[in-house]
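note to self: dont lose this again. the chain is below, predicted strucutre after it. 124 aa total, dont forget to put it in the shared folder this time
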Amino acid sequence: MAKTSEMPKHRGFPAGLLGTQWQFTLRRANSDVTKLVSIPRHRTMDQTVALADIGFVKALWEYFGAEPFERGNLDGERLCRLFGRELLAAERGFDPASYTAKLKINEKLARKNFPQAFDDGVEI
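---
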């Protein structure tokens, strides 16, 4: 069995979108780390998908702000839905399959695509 990578944990980060199946964090590291790639977002009949994206961006902004942060225990699929657009690599030699890879929010595009995530009066 392959050795499992160290996975920094973001204590206090929301585990997921309440009342839905969508998670934001992982409980434990996996030896097969999900590689971060940009996956397209498609319109869907399931509104919870869009709400989860908004909630995740809101949580990222509230937890990290404009500062670079480690991927850590953040869910790979949720990150991939934003990667290359609202989330960018924040270091040279970025390893898309590392729990310690540094990311940063592309604030301008995130505010444009997810304005509700930056509205302090909106609860997700």
